[in-house]
Amino acid sequence: MRRGDIILRANDIPIRSATQMRNLIGLTPVGRQVRLTIERNRVTESATVEVVPLSDQKPSTRGPG
To answer: What residue numbers bound the domain in which 47 lies?
Structure first.
């Protein structure tokens, strides 16, 4: 995922808001995979991601502010 990507679907469920996406991921058991359909630079792409505990996430590479 990159900044600016738009998540269109997760496991074939249309995503209409960030809250809906957060809830879907929050209810998905750790270790399960989620199929995402995203739009990046006006091109639709697919990706599969694994749900991991928050403590296992890699640190953000974003700069300050």
So the answer is: 6-52
Q: Is residue 63 part of a domain?
A: no
DSSP characters over 1-53: --TT-EEEEETTEEP--HHHHHHHHHTSPTT-EEEEEEEETTEEEEEEEE---
SS3 state at 59: coil
CATH number at residue 14: 2.30.42.10
Give the pTM. Answer: 0.74
Q: What is the pLDDT of residues 48-61, one digit of tens each?
A: 999 999 876 665 55
Q: What is the pLDDT of residues 14-46, one digit of tens each?
A: 999 999 999 999 999 999 999 999 999 999 999
Residue 39: inside a domain: yes
Report the DSSP beta bridge partners of residue 39: 6, 44
